[in-house]
Specification:
single chain, mainly alpha, 6 helices
């Protein structure tokens, strides 16, 4: 058992431990959810107009049938297509101010919605 002397500011309260434990769970334990949130945010702000409706043949978010032939190409190829442009899609979907990694996060998010 720990004594009060082992805690320089006195023994922590039970609620403090619960708070710290909860904080640790919410902030640092799941980086994948943070990446997905970033990808969704980028998708919503930059890609949704075409990929929510399938404009010019853009694969619709979550539509397995539209993504079926694209997924076997691999993530790297799909990211390259999004960055450089492919078919009727201009480079970076016309959002040239986006960095390559931002485009990649949006593509990863779209892929995650059909896997």
């Amino acid at each position: 058992m720990l004594s009060v002397k082992q805690f320089p500011l006195g023994r922590p309260k039970r609620g403090a431990w619960f708070f710290l434990y909860t904080l640790a769970l919410l902030t640092g334990c799941d980086s994948d959810s943070g990446q997905a949130a970033l990808g969704k945010e980028l998708f919503d702000a930059n890609c949704k107009v075409c990929h929510a409706q399938g404009l010019n043949g853009a694969p619709i978010l979550g539509n397995q049938k539209m993504w079926r032939d694209r997924l076997p190409q691999g993530v790297d190829v799909l990211i390259q297509h999004a960055i450089e442009g492919y078919g009727l899609m201009p480079a970076k979907g016309g959002r040239t101010e986006l960095g390559d990694e931002e485009v990649a996060e949006a593509v990863r998010y779209m892929i995650s919605e059909v896997q």
